[in-house]
Design goal:
With 470 residues, the chain is an alpha/beta fold. Helices cover 28% and strands 25% of the residues.
Length: 470
C-alpha cells in the first residue's frame, strides 16, 4: 500500500544504493532506523553482479585456454575447448546466490532495516520520493547510487546491442562480436570472447588503454591486435541492423559487420537520475557529486552535514576498491558525528588500476610525460620481464615494468606494468609509494625470492638507485 503523500517515513539513515553502500550498516548502527534504497536489476551493485567479480571468474578459464593454445614456444602442444554454458553457470551459480541471499537478509533479517526496491529522487535536502509515491525523510543520507554503461545514440541497447551488464549472461555465444571501446572493460571482454572462439573486432577512436603510459598503451594495442581484430583511430558514422546482424559504416568509409555489438564506451554516474537539483547539491562537469575529504556532499562549495556520497556517483575513478574506501570513511564519520567527534578525512592514495585482459596491465601514479608537463624533476627506468630468470621461464620478450622516480627525494611517483601478474607485481611498489618511501634501500634492504617474478621489481629499483647516485 502506498504511503499517503502528506506522510513521511522517518529514518535515522537512508542509504541510496546497495553496492558499497550496503557495507555501511553494522552492529554500531543496530539502534538506528535505516532504509536501504536500491532499484538495481540485481542486489549488491555492479561489481558483484556484472563487473569485477564475474568478469574475473570468466578471465581465469580464458587465460588457461589461451596458454594451452599458445604454448608451442614452450614445447607445449595442445588445444582447449571452452564451454560457455558451463563457465557461465558456474559463475552465476555462485554470484546469484550471494546476491539473493544478501537481499533476503536486508529485507527480512534485521528489524531496524527497511529495504526499498524502487527508484527514488530528492524532493528536498533530506527528503526523497519513490516512483510509487512513498516519501522518505532521513536525518542522515548516504548517496551510493553508482554508475551505468554509456549508451551510444546510433546504437541503443537492445537484443543485439548489449552493455557490460548483459555481456556475461548470454544464452549462447555469437559467431562474431564488435566491441566498441578501448578502456579496461572493453579490453577485458574482447579478450574473454576471443578466448571462447568468437570472431572479435575491437573498435576505438584512440589506441587501446589510452590513459595508461604511452609505451604500455602502444604495446597492449599491438599484442591485442595479434589475438583479435583491433581497429583504432575510427568511430561509427552510421549503423544499420539487418537479419544477419549489424552493418556499421566507420568515419573513414570502411564497413564492419557483426552478429552482436557490445558497447563498452565508458560509464555515467547515476547522479542525473536522483533529482539532486531539488536539494541544491553541487555537481561537477563530469556528472559526479562534489564532496569534501570527509565524503560530505557540497552545496555552493560548502559541506552539508549528514549528507554523504561515495563510489562512482562522486568519484572520478569508478573503481570498487575506491568505493569501498569511501564507504569506510563514511561509516567512520557517521560514528564520529554521533559521538560529536571531528571527521575522518579520505586521503588514501595513490590509486591503483588493473586491467585483466591479454596481456594484463596495472599502473598507478604519474607517467614521465605527466611529470614533465607538471615541471617536476623526475626520471624513468624500465626493466623487461625477459631480463630475469622468471622471464626466461615464460619465454617472455614483450612484457615490462617502468617506474617513475622523483630525482631529489627518490620517491616513487608512478609505476606502469604490462605482462603476466601485473596487478600483483604492482602492489609492493604501490605500498612504497603509499608510505612515501624512497627507492633508496628498497632493493637491498630485503630478500627477493629467486627466481620469482618479483625480481623484475628488484632490478628496476636497483636501476633507479644507480640513476640517483649518478
Amino acid at each position: 500500500m502506498a504511503v499517503p503523500q502528506t506522510e513521511y517515513e522517518e529514518f535515522d539513515l537512508i542509504i541510496i544504493g546497495a553496492g558499497s553502500g550496503n557495507t555501511i550498516p553494522g552492529p554500531d548502527f543496530a539502534d538506528w532506523r535505516i532504509a536501504i534504497v536500491d532499484d538495481g536489476r540485481w542486489f549488491g551493485g555492479t561489481c558483484l553482479n556484472a563487473g569485477c567479480i564475474p568478469t574475473k571468474m570468466f578471465v581465469h578459464p580464458s587465460d588457461v585456454a589461451r596458454e594451452m593454445r599458445q604454448g608451442g614456444h614452450l614445447g607445449v602442444h595442445g588445444s582447449a575447448e571452452l564451454d560457455w554454458a558451463a563457465v557461465r553457470d558456474r559463475v552465476f551459480g555462485r554470484i546469484d546466490s550471494i546476491s539473493q541471499g544478501g537481499e533476503a537478509y536486508r529485507d527480512h533479517g534485521e528489524p531496524n532495516i527497511t529495504l526499498v526496491r524502487e527508484t527514488v529522487q530528492f524532493t528536498g535536502e533530506r527528503e526523497l520520493t519513490t516512483v510509487s509515491g512513498r516519501r522518505l525523510r532521513g536525518e542522515r543520507i548516504v548517496i551510493a547510487a553508482g554508475s551505468r554503461p554509456r549508451e551510444l545514440p546510433n546504437l541503443p541497447f537492445g537484443d543485439t546491442v548489449i552493455s557490460s551488464d548483459d555481456a556475461l549472461r548470454l544464452d549462447a555465444l555469437p559467431a562474431s562480436l564488435l566491441v566498441i571501446g578501448g578502456g579496461a572493460v572493453a579490453s577485458e571482454f574482447a579478450a574473454v570472447y576471443s578466448a571462447f572462439g568468437v570472431e572479435v573486432t575491437q573498435l576505438n577512436r584512440s589506441p587501446l588503454l589510452r590513459s595508461a603510459d604511452a609505451d604500455v598503451s602502444e604495446t597492449f594495442t599491438k599484442l591485442a591486435g595479434e589475438q583479435w581484430s583491433v581497429r583504432t583511430g575510427v568511430t561509427v558514422a552510421s549503423a544499420e541492423h539487418r537479419d544477419s546482424g549489424w552493418q556499421l559504416t566507420l568515419d573513414d568509409g570502411s564497413e564492419l559487420s557483426a552478429e552482436l555489438v557490445l558497447v563498452a564506451a565508458g560509464r555515467i554516474p547515476n547522479t542525473d537520475r536522483l533529482g539532486v537539483d531539488a536539494a541544491g547539491f553541487d555537481v561537477r562537469a563530469d556528472g559526479t557529486l562534489a564532496v569534501d575529504l570527509g565524503q560530505r556532499v557540497l552545496r555552493d562549495g560548502e559541506p552539508v552535514d549528514g549528507i554523504y556520497a561515495l563510489g562512482d556517483v562522486s568519484s572520478p575513478h569508478q573503481l570498487k576498491h575506491v568505493a569501498n574506501q569511501d564507504a569506510r570513511i563514511v561509516a567512520e564519520n557517521l560514528r564520529r558525528t554521533a559521538r560529536g567527534e571531528a571527521l575522518a578525512e579520505n586521503t588514501l592514495g595513490p590509486v591503483p588500476y588493473a586491467v585483466f585482459s591479454a596481456p594484463e596491465v596495472a599502473h598507478f601514479g604519474l607517467t614521465l610525460a605527466e611529470t614533465t608537463e607538471q615541471g617536476m624533476d623526475a626520471f624513468e627506468v624500465r626493466h623487461d620481464y625477459g631480463w630475469t630468470a622468471w622471464g626466461w621461464a615464460l619465454d617472455d620478450e614483450v612484457s615490462f615494468l617502468k617506474i617513475v622516480v622523483e630525482r631529489v627525494t627518490g620517491k616513487l611517483l608512478g609505476a606502469h606494468i604490462i605482462g603476466p601478474d601485473a596487478p600483483i607485481l604492482l602492489q609492493p611498489l604501490l605500498q612504497a609509494a603509499s608510505f612515501n618511501q624512497s627507492v633508496r634501500g628498497l632493493a637491498r634492504g630485503q630478500y627477493w625470492p629467486h627466481p620469482a617474478a618479483t625480481e623484475i621489481i628488484e632490478n628496476a629499483l636497483l636501476k633507479a638507485e644507480e640513476e640517483l647516485q649518478a
